[in-house]
């Protein structure tokens, strides 16, 4: 069951207030009880001193008779104060001493006694008066009832309990109102967040007037929206590009098949049609495999199966593999530099192949392609440079995007489906590297880098390498 934050805060504030009121009330209760007991002992001392003087001067039977009358006059009718005198001489006796279990005692001879016959507890003190004249030594006991103090403490405790309860209830109600007022920005954020939908992905939470605690949360939420918006936009673009790329071979397949079915065809004509359809199927398979590869790369996979190799040797192997395309384009390649790194050989070779094929396709006959390997900071950079037409800055920043073509209607569009450079970027990121492109002084340079100290990833290499052979140019 969902609980209101305002109610939870109000309840916690009320519990804290009740705890504070209880502690304060307990302290006041103990202080008041101590003071009442102190005042009762002081009052008992005063009465004891008066009774002691009366008894002390009763040195003859006549004066003792007068002392007894004075003690009787001093005792109230409600029995709240009791005087008792006892001695070895029965004549010098007065009253009945309070007897019973001692509840508590204090220094100075004070004792709180619970009378045997019942009734309120009595605070007693007993003093010895030495012999004087005809009077023998006597024991004087003065007792005062504790019932007034008990009634006062009972009323005071009940009042404290009632006031603590009422105070806690007031804190509960006020805290709920204050909490709702304080959480108003959170309510506004909730409404704004609820309004975000695929139709208004650009909407963001307003953080201008938020308190500090909510500002960080709103900024984090806006950051998440930015990332989701970017991912959603890339997904839309990717789906549209995929649909566009697959529509062409499917249209060609349908058209060729319909033409073949319009009339009877010879075996050679049918073989030619099937061969053409097979080429389109191969192109579709390449697109699908590249899409799957990029999808796995988007999930954050790292290159595994890393081995320590000479990058120059790997590039030389790729150049040997591309010897025929180089001859057909009437260009030659030269290799400069070397470095040793831990790479996935298949992925590294595929990235080199894609960059070299891109250079071959955009290089004039008789020109030279230069492959340079060098270390930059903690990255090993492989750059492929070829003479060519200058590339506009607006185009440079999109060359590694998926399905992007600087020349929409170039002659080799059917052989290239716009994923080659995107795959190079994915492979570089799998090796914790980056990509870059430069166009200056009539030379276009495409490069990718890998981390100089690549670490094994935790995902299986088969998942990264599956689908497309290393030599596919994309």
TrEMBL record:
Database matches in InterPro entries: CztS_silS_copS, HAMP_dom, HATPase_C_sf, HATPase_dom, His_kinase_dom, HisK_dim/P_dom, HisK_dim/P_sf, Sig_transdc_His_kin-like_C
This protein's name: Sensor protein
Residues covered by the Histidine kinase domain: 241-454
Any single Pfam family the record assigns to this protein: HAMP
Principal EC category: transferase
GO CC terms, sorted: plasma membrane
Organism listed in the record: Paraburkholderia aspalathi
MF term (GO), any: ATP binding
Keyword Cytoplasm carried by entry: no
Signal peptide residue numbers: none
Statement: the UniProt record of this protein carries the keyword Membrane: yes
Known role: Member of a two-component regulatory system.
